[in-house]
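Per-residue structure
===
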Amino acid sequence: MLFRRSFVRRVGTWLLLGGALIPTVDRRQSASILPPDAKGVNIADRLVSGLPPEWREITRSYLASHKEREAELAGLSGDELRGALLYLLAQEPKAQDFVLDHLMDPLPRIWRLRVISYISEKPETEWIENGRIEPVFKKIALSDADYELAMTALDSARQIEIRRLRRVLDIRLQARERSGPANEINMLAEEDERWMCLERGATLPSFLRRTPRVFAAGAAGARIRVLAFGDFGSGDENQKATAAAMQSYAHLHPFDFGITLGDNFYDKGATGLDDPRWTTLWTDLYGPLGITFYPVLGNHDWYGPDSPAAELLYTAASSSWHMPSLYYSFKAGPAQFFALDTNDFSAAQIIWLTAELKKSTARWKIVYGHHPPYVAARPPRDHDPRLVSTLMPLLAGRADVYFAGHAHNLEHLRPVQGVNLFVAGGGGALTYGVEAENPNTLFAKQAFGFAVLEIEENSITVRFIDKNGNQLYQANLTKD
């Protein structure tokens, strides 16, 4: 039923390595240490030969079953190589004891941070059952000279323990779902949502988690035009250029309202209502559009403990920002929109979404959140198993469109179970590459830009516009 937020940290320019990110400067520096392989030379042997004896057997075993990693690891050596290996081994259930034994080694901090975060952020792995985690994390918290790393370890220990207790609640909830009274199921679901916030370390009182009744967005015409984009709150020139392109587009094609797809502020969300970025990265850039936006939270919006509350409370301080709850629904023209918090599906959100989709009589049902279930990438990273198993069954046969960000590019995926899938994550943060030859991809481009939805009674037109104002793609959805 439940899935958790993923950990992403951006520092400079990064290279993807098996889900990890390697600073390209480190890769360049180490490339000269391991020259190009001569014909017949075994890369794995060369990598293993440069490691301490206790690392060799487990590394050789890992490389034997992950040949695709050899070339990427060949550009690293010394502590960088061991740090990258420790992160990759953290994803192997049989290597857990080895990882914990070496987590206190003097390895590069970025790799130690990544291992700690992976352990605490991946509830679907066997890590949550490992009783050695807390003693090791507490030891790091007590003795490590790096303050950030020490506090990350302590916070991760808290997160894991709360997740274990939350599983107890989930077991009771599942039992009551089969035969319990509705009022008890609802109380347990609300309690699960409270524990969800505690797990994330956010301060979010219950009155900020109350989902409002379905409301009208103020666009009641037979045809509406909606602006959609995510992953934008970087503050760099690409965000500003993309915002300028939105303004230019709106001069000729005015928007009725907008939706944001999360990661509204990097790197750890908004610090409060007085955060100056509300002016520089929101009002100054998107205020000139003269429309109201209906945002959702991304994973970065949850990283700061005060950010979710700040983004909810800002609704009362702004005419352009309306986010009444973590998840909510509103109607506009011939469509009903369902805004989700996809960082973690609480039991309460699942109950709410199921009921709202079922009773909606809107011509078009458009659901949006931060995380996409499918992306234009190579298998097995072309889908998120958690969203595929949790979200898609709720949408199948009920929703027409699902919009997401998180992947920093522009994508249109093939429909799944009748749901049309789009990604508009090019709002301003560093863009991601795409695998355009993915058979499930109708369109994919690594580009800064935004999406435009033109919704009528019998059709929806989706356009992708880049930061220079060029239309990159158009999709037409129709109903009889």
The longest strand covers residues 459-466. The longest helix spans residues 147-179. The radius of gyration is 23 Å.
